[in-house]
Amino acid sequence: MLKGIITLLVFQYLGESLVKLFSLLIPGPVIGMIFLLIFLMIKKSSFSSLNTAVFIHLKYLPLIFIPTAMGIITQFDIIEKEIWAILISLIIGTILALAFSAKMMDYLTIRQEEKS
């Protein structure tokens, strides 16, 4: 499990370093996840300690949303002023995410069927 946690931290560090180096607007952990995805695609599989580390972290994922909910409550006046921008961005973002996910599933399904 330690190897899995170190792997996650290394990729997060790489992402953070790239963001600091090039002054990117994308958060470092997101870049790190993209690097991890590329690593796993090249490796073509995961390893058990990484799987264990990820599943342990996923168990506590709901705790991340508590500070977000508190932020929404404390910033209600700002949210009220910007509600239309928030709603439009949420709707467009959801549609784009669904379209991308559907295309990715089509691609992966076709690729899996070609292997069989």
Explain this structure to me?
- The chain is mainly α.
- It has 6 helices and no strands.
- The protein has helices at residues 2-22, 28-43, 48-59, 65-74, 76-81, 83-115.
- The chain is extended, with a radius of gyration of 18 Å.
- It starts with a helix and ends with a helix.
- The model has no long low-confidence stretch (mean pLDDT 91).
Mean pLDDT: 91
Helix content: over 70%
Count of DSSP strands: 0
What's the alpha carbon Rg, rounded to whole Å? 18 Å
Order of helices and strands: HHHHHH
Largest sheet, in brief, is: none
Proportion of beta-strand residues: under 5%
Number of helices: 6
Main structural class: mainly alpha
Silhouette:
extended
**What is the distance, rounded to the nearest whole angstrom, between the alpha carbons of the first and last residues?**
33 Å
Uncertain segments of ≥5 residues (pLDDT<50)? none
Please give the oligomerization state of what you see.
Answer: single chain
Q: What characteristics describe this protein?
A:
mainly alpha; 84% helix
Task: Tell me the layout of helices and strands.
Elements (H helix, E strand, L loop, with lengths): L1 H21 L5 H16 L4 H12 L5 H10 L1 H6 L1 H33 L1
Helix pairs in contact: 1-2, 1-3
